[in-house]
Specification:
With 229 residues, the chain is α/β, with parallel strands linked by helices. It has six helices and seven strands; from the N terminus they run αββαβαβαβαββα. It has one domain: 3-Layer(aba) Sandwich (Glycerol-3-phosphate (1)-acyltransferase). The protein has helices at 10-27, 55-62, 81-86, 99-110, 134-141, 189-215; strands spanning 29-33, 44-48, 68-72, 90-92, 114-117, 145-152, 170-175. α1 (10-27) crosses α2 (55-62) and α5 crosses α6 (189-215). The longest helix is centred in the last third of the chain and has 27 residues, at 189-215.
Length: 229
């Protein structure tokens, strides 16, 4: 059995993108910026910062291609769970090394699809002070292009991580230029992974900072009170 056969069906992400777009466009003053930076074909990872509850829906709805997002497994236990399953989102167990989720995501990449992931691992300030290595592992194993994504306006300072943005507030999803990962031969696997993870973190952190300044939407200055670490 190939990894490709383990990924969720592509049509589910198409439905998810349509649902997300309707939700985001009807409730908020939301727009995408520099969507041309997302390759029109081939395996792509959308690596986004994470500050608010609706980040996944906002990026999914405004992305130029349908995507399967890695979503915390506990979220599937809530009322939105059936919709997440139906739209092909991938449950990710809290903690490191969820092989089932990573294998499913790798299947999406191997068929030339798009995977969305939040490298920070949880909702917080969204400044990429830290990042997990899963995105780097997927990029290297799936030979995927990594596009840094700045998701702005989904949580204000002082709001709970589970809160929604205020109606008609301005939201921006800014797609950066693809990250140039080190893929040189002769580098030990662990070192290659560490180097790729840091390259992604630094690139995403820089893109988020620049996008925040360019669009005039500040990141929250606090870590959301109900965030998990």
């Amino acid at each position: 059995m190939t990894h490709e056969s383990l990924g969720p069906a592509p049509w589910r992400a198409t439905v998810g993108r349509r649902v997300g777009r309707v939700l985001v466009k009807s409730l908020y003053a939301a727009r995408a910026a520099a969507a041309h930076n997302v390759p029109a074909a081939g395996p792509v990872i959308l690596a986004a910062n994470h500050t608010g509850y609706l980040d996944g829906a906002v990026v999914l709805g405004l992305a130029p291609r349908p995507a399967h997002f890695l979503v915390l497994a506990s979220t599937f236990e809530l009322g939105v769970g059936p919709l997440l399953h139906f739209t092909g989102q991938i449950p990710l167990e809290q903690g490191r090394g969820d092989r089932v989720a990573l294998t499913s995501a790798l299947g999406v990449l191997e068929r030339g699809g798009v995977v969305g992931i939040f490298p920070e691992g949880g909702r917080g300030r969204g400044d990429l002070a830290r990042a997990e290595k899963g995105v780097a592992w997927l990029a290297l194993q799936g030979h995927a292009t990594v596009v840094p994504v700045a998701c702005l306006g989904t949580r204000a300072t002082g709001d709970l991580a589970s809160s929604w943005p205020r109606l008609r507030s301005r939201l921006v999803v800014d797609f950066g230029e693809p990250v140039a990962l080190t893929r040189a031969a002769g580098i030990p696997g662990r070192e290659r992974l560490e180097r790729a993870a840091e390259e992604i973190r630094v690139s995403l952190a820089g893109h988020v900072r620049e996008a925040s300044e360019r669009h005039g939407i500040a990141l929250p200055t606090d870590v959301a009170p109900d965030v998990w670490d």
